[in-house]
Amino acid sequence: QEEMASGPAIWVFNGSVGEEDSSRHWRHGGFDDSRDLLYREILWASEFCFVLNGSSSVNNVRLVETIMHGCIPVVVTDDFHPPFDRELSWLDIAVFIRTREMPLLPEILASIDPGTRQGKRRVLGQVAPHLDVREEHFWN
Question: How many CA atoms lie within 13 A of 11 on its CB side?
Fold first, then answer.
């Protein structure tokens, strides 16, 4: 990894980091891939993670991945109906911006005070276990 000369790095992901590689090996019920591990480590280390419209709406795996890794979701969309909106206070969890506001993203994120950031991460820690598909309660 290269060190950045100035300022924080911005990572954009699509579920992995690096070039596509067909040499991944299936082990222990999943692909054994160091890039997947790097991807998860980057999510854990990040304070903000983009949740963008892609091949599906922003209600996609990226939103859950972000929450599960304690990274504050930055939901970039012009039409978002959050899941579990009656149970979750999404403004306590995520940052929402419209597509036209993307040029203002550095200012928007910089304007969020440390107390608010800590509060969002605390709520993420409370919400994440309820969205974990590996847990029995998820399916009941």
Answer: 22
92-123 core/surface letters (b: 16 or more CB in 10 A; e: else): ebbbbbeeeeeeebeeebeeeeeeeeeebeeb
Residue 62 contacts by C-beta under 8 Å, 6 or more apart in sequence?
Answer: 15, 49, 50, 51, 52, 54
Distance CA 97, CA 48 (A): 13
Distances (CA, A) of 46 to 9, 22, 26, 33, 100: 10, 28, 28, 20, 24
**What are the E-state strand segments in 35-118?**
48-52, 72-76, 95-97
- Are the C-beta atoms of residues 23 and 31 closer than 8 Å to each other? no
- The string of pLDDT tens digits covering residues 11-39 is 555 554 554 444 454 444 555 566 677 77
pTM of the model: 0.72
